[in-house]
């Protein structure tokens, strides 16, 4: 009796599956790439974004979220992707591993097809296996530690320039301004140490490495670290951490009588850096940074669209988040489905798709083939473009 | 080398000011008040609030404005300490010590994330900054402002020492720390004295908060966490429960960090300082000035 019933049931299930498969086949046309796990094919395609909405980097969250939303709205106005609308789901990453993994699990449960978020590398890193297990491709717009791609996960793509590319640009600029002895300071986090390590490897001949120092984030007094770094008598100091400590370190370097050049990496590019250091101490500080809306030529119309839509000007990583959504849409269109493997294949095949940072083609490591870093400088208390390094 | 010592002393005087509150409260009711570092944060934010409201008036006065603001912040954090004791600790005075410890951790979180609700998660920058031209003293670069902050810290500590050793309240505090029940029988209002202890300890932390805000410039709702741990360490080095010990402990920890950073680099600083601490406490478990306490029945 039981076995009869089971057989009956399994036959019903088989027929059902066949029917669904047939429907899928007809719906997709070619049917080759259709995924197994899809529940419905006419609802919106959900894109997930993890971004800091609270915590030390919470200023960045809205910039990324709005940038992505702008792209979603533009694409939907043009009829969406494969006849389906796009929808953006945002979760708080808080620049903290615990919040980020919780957020990633929430997004996966909500059925996101592509992830277009990730700001802090240390918080993004633990989310990689979660998205990988769920078969969700990740287009990471901001986080750019080499560790993100070092594990060679096939679902991870970086839209921002990498630490290696940032270090290359930093070195280029150091040579340009004639630095001879360069000292590096980091805050011992994944992202910051990564840039310091790769830069240290490049500082072999001239300019030479004149010392390295790691500070503990979250403190106020870095005078001991400043003292230690000045032992090597550097004429150029490169800080690779975030702006909170960066501001304090710049101020304390100047107070200790250091008159040489100071440069900060992209995590420190924030108006608060200047506020914390004080405008006098921050004057003339350089920064390596990927393109921001203000420094991109010909982005005036985009900035105007963004400003009129959200009532505030775009900021760092608005453009990268916007691009991440567009790339995701392009890949889904090319793949003809939202199946993870098909989308990853489509992403790998993209060649020449126009981004703010130039035409897109991913390297075999899934990073940008050109990083697009440029040099900014603090002038009259504002951070402005100094050199495009072109 | 003089620069190293100077840096160490400067940081150490902040640790010492915060450590005093820890050690006073522990000395009198054997409670590790984990919310103490957050009262330092509260002081910094009260100072920030007052300075922002005062606006241009405060900026013109500079250092004097900071002194006035410091007094206001001390009153507010002192009162907050009173409230904390009344609400979170007094009802639990007869309870097992672990319960009170957990209440203290809870109070710490409540203060931190309460402040986050009020002031937001982003760091704030003090509108009045202490920055002066440094003068050269025996090979160390010292600004007048740094020196005056140290003088203020020393004055506050001297005042406290006088209060504990030279006044009636101080005598009552010392009596309670030896035996609260006996003190009660001798006609001491134990509750009132404990409340006063909390007020004084919290006010000192508030003063340190305003000084840190004015000197370093950046404040955020989690700023009390690290310094709270450091001050606790300083109190233990000095011999917890001992007022002079807390001052010595703060300065010792500051110097250890400064020298450790210089010799073996910033990433090894805490390893250096805390290895030293472990060795020191193994050899002398009661700290620099701590007394061997014999359990009385």
Describe the structure.
Chain A has two domains: 176 residues, Rossmann fold; 140 residues, Rossmann fold (3-Layer(aba) Sandwich). Helix content of chain A is 44%, strand content 17%. Chain A contains 15 helices and 14 strands. In chain A, the strands form four sheets. A seven-stranded mixed sheet of chain A has the order 7-6-8-9-10-13-14, with helices on both faces. In chain A, strands 2-1-3 form a three-stranded parallel sheet. In chain B, the strands form two sheets. In chain B, strands 1-4 form a two-stranded antiparallel ribbon. Chain B has a two-stranded antiparallel sheet with strand order 2-3. The chains are: A alpha/beta (390), B mainly alpha (297). Chains A and B meet through strand 7, helix 9, helix 10 and helix 11 of A and helix 1, helix 10 and helix 11 of B.
Structurally, how many domains make up the residues of chain B? Answer: 1
Number of domains of chain A: 2
* Integer-rounded radius of gyration of chain A: 23 Å
Strand content of chain B: under 5%
What form of chain A results from the Cα inertia axes? elongated
Structure class of chain A:
alpha/beta
State the helicity of chain A in percent bands.
Answer: 40-55%
Number of helices of chain B: 12
Distance between the termini of chain B: 51 Å
Which SSEs are present, and which pair or pack?
The complex is a heterodimer of chains A (390) and B (297).
Chain A: H1 2-28, E1 45-51, H2 60-77, E2 86-92, H3 97-109, E3 114-115, H4 121-124, H5 128-133, E4 138-140, H6 147-150, E5 156-158, H7 163-176, E6 181-186, H8 190-202, E7 208-214, H9 223-230, E8 236-239, H10 243-255, E9 261-264, H11 271-277, H12 279-282, E10 286-289, H13 300-310, H14 318-335, H15 340-349, E11 351-355, E12 358-361, E13 374-379, E14 382-387
Parallel strand pairs in A: 1-2, 1-3, 4-5, 6-7, 6-8, 8-9, 9-10
Antiparallel strand pairs in A: 10-13, 11-12, 13-14
Helix pairs in contact in A: 2-14, 7-8, 10-11, 14-15
Chain B: H1 2-29, H2 36-54, H3 56-61, H4 63-89, H5 97-119, E1 124-125, E2 134-137, E3 140-143, H6 144-166, H7 168-178, H8 180-185, H9 190-216, E4 218-219, H10 223-238, H11 243-264, H12 269-283
Helix pairs in contact in B: 1-6, 1-9, 1-10, 1-11, 2-4, 2-5, 2-9, 2-10, 4-9, 6-7, 6-9, 7-9, 10-11, 11-12
């Amino acid at each position: 009796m039981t076995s009869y019933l089971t057989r009956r049931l399994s036959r019903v299930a088989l027929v059902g599956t066949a029917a669904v498969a047939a429907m899928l086949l007809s719906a997709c046309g070619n049917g080759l790439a259709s995924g197994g796990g899809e529940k419905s094919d006419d609802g919106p395609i959900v894109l997930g974004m993890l971004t800091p909405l609270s915590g030390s980097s919470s200023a960045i969250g809205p910039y990324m979220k709005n940038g992505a939303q702008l792209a979603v709205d533009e694409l939907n106005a043009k009829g969406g992707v494969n006849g389906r609308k796009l929808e953006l789901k945002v979760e708080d990453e808080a620049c903290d591993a615990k919040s980020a993994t919780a957020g990633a699990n929430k997004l996966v449960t909500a059925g996101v097809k592509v992830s277009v978020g990730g700001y802090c590398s240390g918080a993004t890193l633990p989310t990689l296996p979660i998205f990988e297990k769920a078969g969700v491709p990740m287009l990471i717009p901001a986080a750019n530690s080499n560790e993100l791609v070092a594990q060679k996960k096939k679902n991870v793509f970086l839209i921002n320039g990498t630490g290696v590319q940032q270090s290359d640009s930093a070195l280029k600029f150091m040579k340009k301004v004639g630095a001879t002895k360069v000292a590096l300071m980091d805050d011992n986090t994944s992202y910051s140490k990564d840039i310091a390590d790769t830069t240290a490897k490049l500082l072999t001949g001239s300019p030479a490495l004149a010392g390295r120092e790691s500070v503990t984030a979250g403190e106020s007094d870095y005078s001991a670290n400043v003292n230690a770094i000045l032992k090597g008598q550097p004429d150029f100091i490169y800080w690779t951490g975030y702006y909170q400590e960066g501001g304090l370190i710049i101020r304390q370097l100047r107070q200790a009588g250091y008159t040489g050049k100071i440069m900060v990496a992209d995590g420190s590019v924030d108006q608060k850096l200047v506020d914390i250091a004080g405008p006098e101490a921050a004057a003339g500080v350089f920064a390596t940074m990927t393109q921001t809306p203000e420094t991109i030529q010909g982005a005036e119309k985009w900035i105007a669209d963004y400003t009129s839509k959200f009532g505030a000007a775009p900021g760092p990583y608005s453009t990268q988040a916007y691009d991440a959504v567009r790339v995701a849409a392009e890949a889904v269109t090319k793949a003809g489905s939202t199946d993870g493997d098909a989308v990853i294949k489509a992403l790998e095949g993209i060649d020449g798709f126009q981004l703010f940072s130039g035409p897109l083609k991913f390297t075999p490591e899934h990073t940008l083939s050109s990083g697009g870093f440029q040099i900014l400088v603090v002038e009259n208390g504002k951070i402005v473009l100094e050199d495009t390094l072109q | 080398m003089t620069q190293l010592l100077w840096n160490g002393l400067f940081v150490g005087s902040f640790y010492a000011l915060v450590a005093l509150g820890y050690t006073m409260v522990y000395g009198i009711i054997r409670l590790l008040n984990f919310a103490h570092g957050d009262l330092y944060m509260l002081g910094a934010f009260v100072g920030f609030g007052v300075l922002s409201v005062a606006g241009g008036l405060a900026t013109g006065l500079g250092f004097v404005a900071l002194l006035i603001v410091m007094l206001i912040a001390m009153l507010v954090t002192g009162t907050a300490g009173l409230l904390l004791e009344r609400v979170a600790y007094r009802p639990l005075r007869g309870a097992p010590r672990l319960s009170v410890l957990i209440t203290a951790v809870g109070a710490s979180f409540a203060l931190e994330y309460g402040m986050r609700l009020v002031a937001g998660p982003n760091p704030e920058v003090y509108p009045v900054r202490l920055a002066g031209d440094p003068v050269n003293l025996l090979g160390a670069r010292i600004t007048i402002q740094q020196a005056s902050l140290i003088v203020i810290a020393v004055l506050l500590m001297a005042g406290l020492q006088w209060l504990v050793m030279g006044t009636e309240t101080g005598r009552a505090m010392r009596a309670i720390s030896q035996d609260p029940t006996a003190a009660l029988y001798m006609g001491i209002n134990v509750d009132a004295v404990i409340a006063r202890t909390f007020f004084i300890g919290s006010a000192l932390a508030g003063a340190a908060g305003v000084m840190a805000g004015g000197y370093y410039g950046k404040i955020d709702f989690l700023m009390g966490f690290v310094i709270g741990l450091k001050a606790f360490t300083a109190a233990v080095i000095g011999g917890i429960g001992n007022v002079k010990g807390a001052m010595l402990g703060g300065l010792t920890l500051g110097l250890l960090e400064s020298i450790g950073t210089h010799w073996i680099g910033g990433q090894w600083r805490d390893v250096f300082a805390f290895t030293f601490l472990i060795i020191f406490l193994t050899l002398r478990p009661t700290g620099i000035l701590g007394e061997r306490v014999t359990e009385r029945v």
